[in-house]
Amino acid sequence: MSDAVANPIFYLIPGLGADARIFERLRLHGTVRVLEWLEPTSLDEPLAAYAARLAAAIPPDEACWVAGVSFGGIVALEVGCLRPNARVVLISSLPTPTERTGWVRLGAWLHLDAWAPIQLMRRLPRAGEWFFGVSGTRGNKLFRELLTLLTPTYTKWALRQLFRWTGCRVRPVAHLIGDRDRVFPIGYRTATHVIRGGTHFMVVTHATEVSKILNALAAEAPAA
Question: In 123-157, which positions are buried (b, 16+ CB within 10 angstroms) versus exposed (e)?
Answer without folding.
Answer: eeeeebbeebbbeeeebeebbeebbeebeeebbbb
